[in-house]
Amino acid sequence: MSTNREEFNLGSHIGEEQVAGGPPHEHPSLGTELRGYIIGLVLAAVLTAASFWALDEHVIYGPGIVMALIVLGLAQVGVHLVFFLHLTTSPDNTNNALALAFGVLIVSLIFFGSIWVMYHMNANMVPVKALMQQRGG
Amino acid sequence: MSAPSSALRTGRDPYHLGHGPSTGAPEYTGHGGGGPAPKRIVVGYGFWIFILSDVVLFSCFFAAYTVLIHARNGGPGPAIFDLRNTAQETACLLLSSFSCGLASLAVGRRSLLWTEVALAVTGAFGLTFIMLEAHEFAGLVTRGYGPTHSAFLTAFFSLVGCHGAHVTAGLLWLGTMMAQFAAKGFKENIRHRYLCFSLFWHALDIIWIGIFTVVYLIGRITP
Amino acid sequence: MTLLGKLTWQAFPLEEPLPLFSGLAVFLVLIAILVWVWRKGHVPYLWREWITSVDHKRIGIMYFMLGSVMLLRGFIDAIMMRTQQAIAFRAPGFLPPSHFDQVFSAHGTIMIFFVAMPFMIGLMNLIVPLQLGVRDVAFPTLNSVSFWLTAAGALLVNLSLLIGQFDRTGWLPYPPLSELRYSPGVGVDYYCWAIQISGIGTLMTGVNFVTTILKLRAPGMHYTRMPMFCWTALAANLLIVAAFPVLTATLGMLLLDRYVGFHFFTDTAGGNSMLFMNLIWAWGHPEVYILALPAFGIFSEVVSTFSSKPLFGYRSMIYATMAICIISFMVWLHHFFTMGAGATVNSIFGIASMIIAIPTGVKIFNWLFTMYGGTVRLRTPMLWAIGFMVSFTIGGMTGVLMAVPPADFQLHNSLFLVAHFHNVIISAVVFGAFAGYTYWFPKAFGFVLDERLGKWAFWLWNIGLWVAWGPGYIVGLEGMTRRLQSYDVAEWRPWLLVMAGGVVIILLGILAQIAQIVVSVRTRDRRRDLTGDPWDGRNLEWATSSPPPAFNFAALPNVADQEPYWDMKTRAREIGQLVRPEPRYEAILMPRNSPTGFVTAFFAVVTGFALIWHIWWLVILGLVGSYATFVVFAWRDHDEELIPAEEVARLDRANRAARTTRLQERMAERESQQESHE
Known about the structure:
The structure holds 3 protein chains of 3 kinds. By secondary structure, chain B is mostly helical. Chain B has helices at about 5-10, 40-70, 85-110, 110-140, 150-185, 190-220.
């Protein structure tokens, strides 16, 4: 292909792990990259430990535990995305971030939507079990 | 129509046949300006989209679990889960995700030895995870709490089992990957494939975060 | 535990003459065709040029052919249902309930999954890479796998004609009826495995096209310069990626219930059948837009081309498309308002369902304003587009009626609903597919279809649609529910007779289309499209020859405008130089053909069939075969081949010569016309 094509092919030499190519830049050193993974590992381990620890009712105000667990879980997802999957907010990552945002939207619609719909359905309708018992006598 | 572009004024490429970029500085790939993206970006992006679709698949099983958590048919609830086992599984998967990342660094530096070592470690942790899960499942079934006992257990076994099936498929892929690195070296298409594998493996760990949080931990405090 | 699982002689409908003979006839015709192909020595050609092809244009054509064949199958089901309801007034009719149930289930399944989807995906395959100005989709081999998996699903559905029976629970197998306890036969399993296999193919198509559209475009083609069909294809494929996993998961749960005694949707052990409705429609509603959005894109292209004007409100069209893409995920409950989620939930979903009509309305107005003030040419594709706008607006408004929950409580599962969705799906998706088919046929095959027969087909279909489904609204309001094998309400009778007449009119329309193909192929030498641009088109697909070379473009075009090809033509006229200078020809790397898709589909059919009939050893064999195919594919080294620069130059020069001659002839014609006017 013509020369102008090659300008855009420079991306193929940078960090293997990145979902999308960034603008052409220097290959980061082993130390830098390794440090990223180690920070990710430590953060993930700490957050996991915190999740298991939060379950103990004496640590957190009881009704707040679920919220705390969700927050810790989401934080850890964030850690994985940033340190292991190298998702950043740089302009070259826009497409990946947008796709992720779309995915998160769909997942929340399906997950929370289903729970909401089914909760109302269960609250309004005779439970199947009761129905069966009525019939079975 | 719009005013004639600079290309027409300068007399350069009046027909837009691809002799060169018609508008000033090249814009960056993927946003419209620069033409088709290089293969590595295309492959990575395609797999990223696939992973998102896989996450949507899991969201249905998560929804089913949450909806059916009280449908116990007179049987037990999430209290039967052994959280120590869960913690061990979590540690295995996190470490395997980390060593998978190290394998990426080795691939980036074309070191066959370190690549294979890191992949073998990844696989070993993955296999341990699967064995821990199988142990948990077998324990539940022998206690009479198999998936056919209640809708709650059905949802639990399906969600966690679906993740386990993904990990098993990942292990199969990992073995193929190791063989390919050994047989073919760091060819471009093999590296692209490895990029996909590492995305897959990290994504499985992300799904697991959802599982241990929703199924095991929040499940435990659900009455 | 036998060697053949549940498969015995009882699986063959030896006692029921109708399915036996129709099934046998279909398979005999198929075998006859295969034998003929074999005897004529076409097999190597077919294998080399079509079956193993990874060329997006070839795959698109094969998708469209699959859709056409399945349309005939689904339409025969439609004729049977209309005939049954026309004669089954206080009478049993000619179809016993067990058979009638299979017919309506097969009709819906086939029409949605194996007609509408292949039509839309086929046209996307054919056109999207051309419009983007690139050489292929992102993953060409995967594309072939997608097609063959879809074909595998279609084969399984049709296999149920002869071996066993099809699903009798409707096109969506609602539990608890579809659970093992109430449907112990293989019908639901046929349905589930066929849809699972083709669903995986569709999901891969989604991944492929999202990546293609977002990452592979000609230089300079910004998002706001993409043709509208590409935008709608992007939205539809995003919906595929987001929605099809839900279908896979839901049917997977049903299969787990049926095969290993799980309790997702059973009425025992705490299972909840409402969960199935909830999940299946979380896929089902987006599916409607997966079909409709590409059709909207086709109409946008057609209306703009045949009005000789740029699309009105291009940006608002993009916003409307993406708004539909998102909102379509927030309305699924309107398919089961009556299931008792309560006033709060129902009203919120009702309002969301009304809101989604707004971007659709924006689109209708944009098409109308594109026509306004334009030089409208009433060629066949444009007729389909105008017919769509009229019928779809009416059908859409009956949909808004049903978005009101209290009204829906009256109309739910009545023929009013059935009339509504036939009205919108036929006018949008089927008319859209036919508009695209007539519009892009010359691009695919190099000659234009017969106009006169095309117009006949349009009028017959359009009138047939209203005669067949207009009365459906009336009997629906008179209380007729869907899927009735027989009835005893005298008021319905005349309307059902009219509806049967409507089906005959549509049949004539289909015959006109078959005649159109035959006539056009026979007279193709008179209909050649030498310029590659028979309609005075505006987008890049018309910038290359018809049919395009394997590599589409000898040199990737540079895009500087929203309508790149129109822009090129305008410039050529401005400088008064019709012949474009040659680009610098360079060798082009193209993906090599691969049998992976065909082999994968073969193993998919084997595995699916074995699962349906519980032949476990064959399941294992099929799965091992699939994995082996994967490894063999992953192991190959030469997956691309170079087309030498001389070959590129030769093809492009031939195309240029033909084009130049034709253009000069046209100029001469125009000049002589002007002289005679003076």
